[in-house]
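Re: that backbone. Tokens:
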């Protein structure tokens, strides 16, 4: 159940859905998703660089 919620939250298809009526809340969730994607991308790059050394 926990992983299902996280995967739903990180799904790019749900990024543009209009579930929240509050515009500020929608922008906040969008920025949070972007920051999580950037963090995960950086972690992948760091692991790849560590493995190639």
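Recovered sequence:
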């Amino acid at each position: 159940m926990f992983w299902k919620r996280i995967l739903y939250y990180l799904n790019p298809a749900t990024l543009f859905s209009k579930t929240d009526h509050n515009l500020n809340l929608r922008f906040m969730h969008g920025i949070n998703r972007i920051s999580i994607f950037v963090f995960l991308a950086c972690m992948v790059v760091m692991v790849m660089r560590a493995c190639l050394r």
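The longest helix spans residues 23-52. The CA atoms of residues 39 and 45 lie 10 Å apart.
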